[in-house]
């Protein structure tokens, strides 16, 4: 009996020792990972090198490289009030379910009409919608990622869903009906490419080539740049380098651009897109597009200083009503 007890104690001691060894190994790996990320951050501060060269030396950590956000491609960024991610996520799910199903219905109708001899259609449009229908049924239509940043999250879309066409439809309906799609969501921004910060210029260049270098037309454009959770980034410096990717024949026009290069950075994640309807969609702000005021507070609670006008650049939000 004593021998059995001793054996049990011995095995337990060996298991505890093995577990402790695994835990210590994991801690060391995490510490090494954190040190690597700190080194990456410090490299951005080296002003002796041009920005593209500094980013070239910036190596993504193993943790970031294995993150599906960096390779997801199509998607949407949606913004909301601080602490409202759970509620906003429910709303974005409802909106996406509604509009992705509409695209599937269009695809089904297109296929039905395609079988008719007297139907003339755009083959490219049909192929794209058919792809949406087939891909949406085979795997998840979208996957939501928390970016650990207050007020913003990312929704990765099935590769068969075009984020620009999807958001264009959402915002056109919002503009036509003046109906608010969600009281929790402020903006829904289409994203065509995602990457690590070290690859921002290469990925942006590939998009620029698609939109600016397809013909001899001269475009008016602007760069819409926003960075969150990364105080090492100099906005002006990045915009200047991004502008170098565009042929000088094209004209910068901040008021009436034909194309807008969208660059959203959260920590070391980059979200990129080029759109033609940025201003028309009110910067993809659902509240502004619905024609609602910046606040729904009663007028009697507002203090108005008639002698001095102030300008606010803050995006309007909808206050949650208390019942």
TrEMBL record:
RNA-binding recorded as keyword: yes
Molecular function GO labels: RNA binding
SMART domains per the UniProt record, alphabetical: THUMP (SM00981)
UniProt domain THUMP: residue ranges: 173-276
GO biological process, one term: tRNA modification
Basic and acidic residues bias (residue ranges): 1-15, 39-48, 297-311
Statement: the UniProt record of this protein carries the keyword RNA-binding: yes
Keyword annotations: RNA-binding
Sequence segments annotated as region (Disordered): 1-48, 295-323
Record InterPro entries: THUMP_dom, THUMPD1-like
Pfam family, one: THUMP
Top-level taxon of origin: Eukaryota
Family matches, as PANTHER family: THUMP DOMAIN CONTAINING PROTEIN 1-RELATED, THUMP DOMAIN-CONTAINING PROTEIN 1
Name of the protein described by the UniProt record: THUMP domain-containing protein
């Amino acid at each position: 009996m004593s021998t059995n007890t001793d054996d049990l104690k011995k095995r337990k001691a060996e298991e505890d020792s093995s577990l402790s060894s695994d835990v210590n190994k994991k801690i060391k790996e995490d510490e090494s990972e954190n040190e690597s990320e700190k080194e990456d951050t410090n490299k951005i501060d080296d002003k002796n090198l041009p920005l593209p060269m500094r980013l070239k030396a910036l190596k993504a950590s193993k943790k970031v490289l294995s993150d599906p956000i960096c390779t997801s491609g199509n998607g949407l960024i949606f913004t909301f009030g601080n602490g409202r991610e759970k509620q906003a996520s429910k709303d974005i799910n409802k909106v996406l379910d509604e509009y992705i199903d509409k695209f599937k219905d269009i695809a089904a109708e297109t296929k039905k009409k395609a079988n008719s001899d007297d139907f003339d259609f755009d083959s490219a449009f049909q192929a794209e919608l058919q792809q949406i229908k087939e891909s949406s049924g085979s795997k998840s239509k979208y996957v939501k990622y928390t970016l650990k940043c207050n007020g913003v999250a990312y929704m990765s879309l099935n590769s068969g869903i075009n984020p620009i066409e999807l958001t264009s439809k959402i915002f056109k309906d919002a503009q036509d009906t003046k109906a608010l799609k969600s009281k929790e969501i402020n903006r829904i921004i289409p994203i065509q490419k995602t990457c690590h910060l070290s690859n921002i210029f290469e990925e942006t260049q590939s998009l620029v080539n698609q939109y600016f270098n397809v013909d001899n037309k001269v475009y008016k454009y602007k760069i819409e740049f926003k960075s969150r959770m990364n105080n090492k980034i100099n906005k002006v410096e990045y915009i200047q380098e991004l502008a170098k990717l565009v042929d000088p024949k094209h004209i910068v026009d901040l008021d009436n651009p034909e194309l807008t290069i969208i660059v959203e950075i959260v920590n070391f994640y980059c979200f990129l897109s080029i759109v033609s309807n940025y201003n028309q969609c009110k910067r993809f702000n659902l509240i502004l597009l619905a024609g609602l005021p910046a606040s729904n507070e009663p007028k009697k609670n507002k203090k108005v200083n008639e002698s001095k006008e102030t300008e606010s650049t803050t995006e309007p939000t909808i206050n949650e009503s208390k019942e």
